[in-house]
Description:
single chain, mainly beta, 2 domains
Amino acid sequence: AADGQDVRPVEVDEFQIGNAETYDVIVQPTEERAFTIVSEAVDRSGMGRATLAPRAGMTAPVPPLRERPLATMKDMGMDMSSMPGMNMGGSGAMAGMDHGAAGHDMAAMPGMAAMQGMAAAPGLAAQKPRGSDAMGDMGGMKMSMRDPQNAPGVKLGPGVQTIAPMPMDRTGEAGQGLESVGHRVLVYKDLIALTPSSDPRMPTRALDIHLTGNMERFMWGFDGLKFSETSKPYTFEEGERVRVTLINDTMMAHPIHLHGHFFELAHAPPGHGPRKHTVIVAPGGRVSWDFTADPGDWAFHCHMLYHMHAGMFQVFSVRPLDGGAA
Length: 326
């Protein structure tokens, strides 16, 4: 089960779990010996260890801490591999790759001169300064890391450090640092509800919500506003079927939690989206889910509680069709 709701069984070796998420796990040893079960911080700063053994006193080797994961272009909301001539390899990270030796003249590619710190060719715009807008115009595509056209509903201010120019669905990818571990890692697209949804209707409207922040100033919010700056909640009508898309404009993963509801992730066959109350939105990623609005005022927030207390909190306000009190 995921978040207490039945899903089809999935065989895995590792999974990443966000604050407030739950999974039911069945472990079936095939040998009569001790096994080490490890829980590991996402930044690889530490781990917890438990031993599963047929007899008390038995132990098993403990693996060393793995290297700290590094952010890639995808984590900045730029899936460069989808652009013609821009496939940088599987991870999206450029470090350590000799593109010149492979016959790729990076400076000759549209918009790449500024990335390499080289002087622009005659007739091209001067090199932009380093910073959140340094990507500039990639061959006619707006790649600014703070372009309001990429998120018209976001209020730009000091609490919005970046806006992902090319956010993508990452629910089929392993979590940060687990991309090439060499064994089976659970991804959201593995999860299929065991029984059909009780509400098979298609959504009648869509709502995009941007996860925004300034990591240097430790400011967090939704759509560019922390909770203390908001003047109204997200509003819904009782029984309304809505598709919500969460877009992560930051370079951190956020476990987003909705009170009072189970929503259905939108990747699965119709009616079989896994029902969850919390979902991790990967850096530079987007996650879509459908839900049926039940009356009341429901907390909606990041479950990294220091993010919530810093402002990444809102209210889903659901009212009857006549507009009366819930």
